[in-house]
Known about the structure:
Elements: E1 4-12, E2 15-16, H1 26-41, E3 50-54, H2 66-73, E4 82-85, H3 91-105, E5 110-118, H4 126-133, H5 142-147, H6 155-165, H7 170-189, E6 197-198, E7 200-203, E8 209-212, H8 224-228, E9 248-258, H9 259-264, E10 271-280, H10 290-301, E11 310-313, H11 319-328, H12 341-344, H13 351-365, E12 370-377, E13 381-389
Helix pairs in contact: 1-2, 3-13, 10-11
Protein name: Acetyl-CoA C-acetyltransferase
Organism: Phenylobacterium terrae
Pfam families: Thiolase_C, Thiolase_N
Amino acid sequence: MGEAYIVEAVRTAGGRKGGKLKDWHPVDLGAVVLNELVDRTGVDPARVEDVVMGCVMQVGQQAINVARNAVLASKLPESVPGTSVDRQCGSSQQALQFAAQAVMSGTMDVVIASGVESMTRVPMGSSAALASQAGMGSYMSPGIQEKYPNIQFSQFMGAEMMAKKYGLSKDQLDEYAYQSHQRAIAATQAGAFKNEIVPLKVKDEAGAESDHTVDEGIRFDASLDGIKGVKLLQEGGAITAATSSQICDGASGVMIVSEKALKELGLTPMARIHHLSVMGHDPVIMLEAPLPATQRALEKAGMKVDDIDLFEVNEAFASVPVAWLNTTGANPDKLNVNGGAIALGHPLGASGTKLMATLVHALKNRNKRWGLQTMCEGGGMANVTIVERL
């Protein structure tokens, strides 16, 4: 089997709901990332053989194959196809894995994996809500309801179930959320995100134009007392808005090439794809899948948790990474070292390649070798990708 290499990885700085990126059409957000990847690598746009783009809410402005539409809005030629992937929050991590598989199989040499989500313009839950409003019914078919009677699949309930199952207190989750902001602040102030962020032109209410280069969700004045003071989302629970990922607008992407393309195009690899896998798990607790998926991935890769230098585990809710830490025994100093979605935002379909961009740049900045990325996904699934920095 051939090798697959990441030669560039970029993302936009996150925008809050109704914030700095509200005027950006999601198709154009995706196109900016595609353009940046070919500009930075110097690869002839016509050499790109496919664009695989993750997106969760594929309705409205993100409908009718957002990947192909982003290609048409970009500098890539019409000869470049595009396909859109929905594996819920892991959509663009799955896009990355599909792209890597195409390259490793030898059927393609240059593929862009990317993701986009404008949660301002296409709110979370839009696809199900619009179907219901149009009288098209629910995705909860009679077959699903027979198998899971009287159950409504809910990520929020899954987060609470995880906190209860793993004995996590509100104080523990509050402290983790505070740490996420502190690490994001430190990373921003140190310029750790500089090389991964694509500047975007934005206008303020007065019409003044500026470059958007700082994740809008970071609370630079965050305090532990302030986080502790946020009310519970459910009486008797442990989760609050402060310990949940932030609604976010953004796009991200990586360019993946074969060894043949690496040599022909004179490209310098950032990382090599070492392992990729996906796992289904309990759809009721839903967010637990990264725990067994990580263990299985390490076993399949012939590695131990201590072999990994940096981890990116998506902070959908604080209970996920905290339970993941407790279960895997990973060193907490290696996890989400530049903060996570609680501080930086979680732009759904864009989060997979967003986390990978942060991971490969962090490996480079810290002169580390091995990185592992995973995230929980709606329906009870998890992707795991292990990369080796080169």
